[in-house]
Design goal:
single chain, 136 residues, mainly alpha
Length: 136
């Protein structure tokens, strides 16, 4: 079999690049839709459970909200649904979570296991806590 002609190689490369670019666009669209869905779920959860708004750079706020939602959801599943915690224990943990308002803290903990949330919340320092709202 003779080697491909240079013009055949270019067509093949062009097709490959076009397919790759289309794949990237499709992946980016999918990722944007997924993030929007996660963001909406996080916002609804925060409102339902009276979680305070997070503080930090604008670009970190949504990521922090999604991270907080995911970590708290994982913690609830691990500690209450699958674990031995009762609702009173969980309510105490929720109060501690409400005190952490720095978006960066939640982002930093995004890979943590749900069973570690209480320890992580207890270890948070003053820079991670917002000003306490006496009217809440």
């Amino acid at each position: 079999m003779p080697p491909p002609r240079p013009d055949e190689v270019q067509i093949s490369t062009d097709c490959w690049q076009a397919a790759r670019d289309a794949d990237t666009e499709t992946k980016e669209e999918w990722l944007a839709a997924k993030r929007a869905e996660e963001q909406q779920a996080a916002a609804e959860w925060a409102e339902r459970f009276d979680m305070p708004p997070l503080e930090g750079p604008e670009r970190a706020l949504e990521w922090g909200e999604r991270s907080r939602h995911q970590l708290m959801t994982d913690a609830y599943s691990a500690l209450v649904v699958e674990g031995t915690w009762g609702e009173a224990d969980w309510a105490e943990l929720e109060e501690k979570a409400r005190a952490i308002t720095r978006a960066g803290w939640w982002i930093d903990q995004r890979e943590a296991d749900g069973t570690d949330v209480l320890e992580l919340l207890d270890a948070a320092d003053e820079a991670d806590r917002g000003t306490e709202n006496p009217f809440r």
